[in-house]
Amino acid sequence: MGGPAGPTVEPEDLVRVARQGHLAPADPPVPERLALISYTSGTSGTPKGAMNPHTALTYNAARQVTGHPIPEGATYFALAPLFHITGMVCELAACFLNAGTLALAHRFEPGVVLDAFLEHRPAYTIGPATAFMALAAHPAVTRDHFASFAVVSSGGAPLPPALVTRLRETLGLDLRNGYGLTESTAACASVPAHLHAPVDPATGTLSVGVPGAQTVVRIIDGHGAELPFGETGEIAVRGPQLALGYWGLPDATAEAFPDGELRTGDVGFMDEDGWLYVVDRKKDMINASGFKVWPREVEDVLYTHPAVREAAVVGVPDPYRGESVMAYVSLRPGATAAPAELSAYCAARIAAYKYPRHVEILPVLPKTTSGKILRRELRERGSKHS
């Protein structure tokens, strides 16, 4: 699917204009036209180019400005990379709309970023949970590093409740959850500025927020029928922030955007007050002896262990169960824990079919350039050793 891309500039045109010394005025942008092609992270497959229109970019950038208590002219810090849709919209575009200053670090290294926080005193940043885990684990981190922030947000994956509690208690950092995709031009749900996200008492899942204005979120079954509050199904989104489809992939576009509604591939539920909860990716569900195991539930337990810095759970082939639950973990600096200890820790806190039979401790977990943990690589690693 090509989409209404608008006029293009060829190299020979640039040479001609340079010789002439002038350039004809550009056509004003058409709101519904393609503004950019942003690629999905490819954590579960080949990245796809989402065609984000001007309307989607301006809508979500404006929501960032109006929905957060950030003073005009404030400093924003680019913790999320600017090539990623989150950094492009929530940091770069929102900063421009708010007449702000955007501070950059030339690389993500926790010590460098913490020094930059002290130097620039930013009021806002957003990044993946893994970035905040790394910052919190740095030996020099103090509450003062985060004292200037009015809002600190996280996206890319649901936040473990234990991480949010740990950051609040140790650093005074109120890390706010959110939910969005490349196909929704960043956010489609967030936590309102005057509220705190609830934790679902039945599952222990932290809410990712409520849908934004003009945004409709439904929980649907496999046939597209809407499910009642509290029931788990696929998250579907309709709103002004949606992409036009995938560049050059008409079949994938038709599958993901039936009738203009985005089928996210994420599994979740909504409570009666409108709070949205993300359980996991549909593709990441583990089938252990016929029982459904969602990796996020096991990971949330692992994050409550004091030695665990990062955790990712995948299914690996098992001749008896079909799939077994396997956990990959990196430890906090100076901490120690044996794989058997972590497996037993989970077994004491969740159902017998859910706890990881295998645990491997790695120095760091593999990630995309935007900071998402690469489950696909871990799944391949586990398959080779199963």
- The number of E-state strands comes to 19
Percent strand equals: 15-25%
How are helices and strands ordered from N to C? Answer: HEEHEHEHEHEHEEEEEEHEEEEHEEHEH
CATH superfamily annotation of the largest domain? ANL, N-terminal domain
- Spatial ordering of strands, largest sheet: 4-3-5-6-7
Helix content: 25-40%
What overall form do the CA principal axes indicate?
A: globular
Number of helices: 10
Rg over CA atoms, rounded to whole Å, is 22 Å
- CATH level 1 class label of the largest domain: Alpha Beta
Total domain units = 2
Query: What is the CATH topology assignment of the largest domain?
Result: Rossmann fold
Low-confidence stretches: none
Name of the CATH architecture of the largest domain: 3-Layer(aba) Sandwich
> How many angstroms does the end-to-end distance come to?
40 Å
What is the average of the pLDDT values?
Answer: 91
Secondary structure class reads alpha/beta
Quick one: biggest sheet?
5 strands, parallel
What's the topology here?
Layout: H1 11-20, E1 34-39, E2 49-53, H2 54-66, E3 75-77, H3 85-97, E4 101-103, H4 110-120, E5 124-127, H5 129-137, E6 151-154, H6 161-171, E7 175-176, E8 178-181, E9 186-190, E10 210-211, E11 216-220, E12 233-238, H7 250-256, E13 262-270, E14 276-281, E15 286-288, E16 291-293, H8 295-302, E17 308-318, E18 322-331, H9 339-347, E19 358-361, H10 375-385
Parallel strand pairs: 3-4, 3-5, 5-6, 6-7, 18-19
Antiparallel strand pairs: 1-2, 8-9, 9-10, 11-12, 12-13, 13-14, 15-16, 17-18
Helix pairs in contact: 2-3
Written account of the structure:
By secondary structure, this protein is α/β, with parallel strands linked by helices. The chain has two domains: 270 residues, ANL, N-terminal domain (Rossmann fold, 3-Layer(aba) Sandwich), CATH 3.40.50; 101 residues, ANL, C-terminal domain (GMP Synthetase, Chain A, domain 3, 2-Layer Sandwich), CATH 3.30.300.30. The chain is 26% helix and 25% strand. Helix 2 crosses helix 3.
